[in-house]
What does this fold into?
Amino acid sequence: MGSKLEYILITAIAFVLLLPFGINVKNRNSTPKKTEQKSSEISNFTEYEINASSLEHTLKAKSAKEVNRSWILSSPVISTDKIKSLSAKRSVANSQKIEFFDNVVAKKADGTVYKTGHAIYNTKTKELITPENFTINRQLNIVHGKNLQYDAKTKTTKAKDVNGTIILKNRD
It folds into this structure.
């Protein structure tokens, strides 16, 4: 376990579901098989991660299943003090990282919108990485590129193969 996300989710499961974990029965004549073991499942939840002085992030999802020490989330949305919302159709969370898949959209408070098919968010470092193509929309400006790295703490963005359309404002 080890991460705060896993600890909070497991604690929520214990209080909400109050169900015992399944018992693994072994046949003496068969060879043990390595299979996916679903140990916990929750629906329509909100998880808050709080440190000593503030709310770190809020995570909402339609459902979550724990499989082999990872959480598979359906329709996750994460909000932080740095990123207004980060959503996708599904994600996999383990340790400090949450991987988002299918229609990933990150919105900042200033109106900037990041879109990609796959993104990784590190809850500890507050870094968002898109290992494939991305699009950034901010008002009328559109930027495309690959391998985006957005550091929410320092508000810096790095990327490869960047091109875009930027509308400059006239000074009056």
